[in-house]
Structures
1.
Amino acid sequence: MSGSDADAGSAAAGPAPGTLAVELAEGFAGDDVTVLIDGKQMWHRNGVSTNYSVGIADVVRLPMPTAAWPTVEVQVGRRSSSRRVDVGEARGAGAGIAGAPELRLRARIDPAGALTLGVASDETRY
């Protein structure tokens, strides 16, 4: 894999206080993936593939957006899925990893090729 934007958003980087974590889960197979916040590219990587032994391809950790209701978008090739999120709810929800508030989203590609992006709060953390 080769990263073009901040590799600080990769799984190897620890979360900063107030973190947005986008988990790239099932269905990725050598894909070019871009994460945008309010239309601005925040992360991009080529060759993203799911490791099926853990069910995850990567975890993109970015600083928490300052807008109250930002739109987070994940693009995989020509497919795109977006979701408006409540940053205030994440900040008020308490601690994430290492005691910092964390808003977690999970992107998946189903067997038919549809890309979905949803809240991952009730799922396993990576």
2.
Amino acid sequence: MKKSSNLLYPFATLGILLMLSVFFSPHAAAQYNFKSDPSDPAVLSRVEAKVNTNKFVWFSVGCGTGAVSMYLAGRGAHSLVTEDSSYGSSRGLSYGQIFAGLGLATAFQTAIYIGNSPPSTDRLIGKSPEYVEVYIAAYKEEKLEIKNTWGNLGFLLGVTGGALAFLSTLE
């Protein structure tokens, strides 16, 4: 094991602490402030979005995507700069690694915005069209905010880890 691999210990510790904070956070409904009208569709939909959106999954996927994309892009850039054939046999492969890393990062960001499932219809049966419209809009907005926050937090942590992992492979 190289001395530079000691750079991974702070990253691993921070990652474990962040994952534990997700596991041991209080239930989302208990965190929400019900000082406003509890029958307000926007309030109820935001609570349902917090309960139904798995922060750990988005954090983990973001972390893995960030690490892999940074590592690939770093390998490609390093082999281009140093013209080192140990990472790739050609400049085309080096460019491919860079674009694969950037493409993976772009695909993750796109998945955050596209993969937005609607709320369950159980609470919407028998409600007015205005109620349903407000409920669905607030639900999607809250869900997108949660996915964006936790996915990007994981992505940034993953990019940091990927950079440290790549730097630990350099001589």
3.
Amino acid sequence: MRPMTATMQSFGFTWTAPDGTRRASAVAYDRVSADRQRRELETAGARDINEVTVKPGELPKLEG
């Protein structure tokens, strides 16, 4: 029997801060941490929160 391998996914965010400034996360998150970070952004009043899947060593880029 072959052992199952887990596929690790990493996530980052782009969002608009309450003052209107576009932001991008400077770290990548695992699923549990990404869910927690989304809640923190929402609580802080962030808008246009976009979660993106990133590769190891990659961070989300702001569009435009």
4.
Amino acid sequence: MRAAGWFALVFGAAAAQVTVAPLFPVAGAVPELVLLTVCLAGAFSGPGPVMVLTPLGAVMLGMLSDRDPGLLLVAYLPVVVLGALLEDAPLPLGHAARTYGMTLGAGLAARTVLGVGAMVGGAPAAFGTLATAVLLPGLFVDMLVLTVCYVPLRLAGLEGGGFRLRRGRYVAGL
């Protein structure tokens, strides 16, 4: 039942990314709703659902929009890596700091990958414009939407889990 809920939430985020988000741009930027959904899933459910929801969300958004699903997958993959790095960081970070750090880093990586992908696809190679017109407003909007979603979840009593990845061992037994 929980998997069906996550599936519906990611599908709703992908549909809203294509239909609703472009209607409310802030400084020309719209939030990456699928990325924010995956980050919130990581914050409150751990790395397992994120490893499933990341490719699922990338494919859903790619199919609903004109974006390449493979490029979206590469753009969204840093969520897992950043979540694990911030969990194992030597600094004692609280749940909110880890969630915002994971979302900020993943949003920066995602928007950079998508911007460079657009430049490779024929858009003018203007890295200054990428930073000032895409990255900064986009990250601001992402943090604003994350706050609108994260704070009520924490006030409602939802406790965040850790983002520990189970470490596997290499077994070479012949």
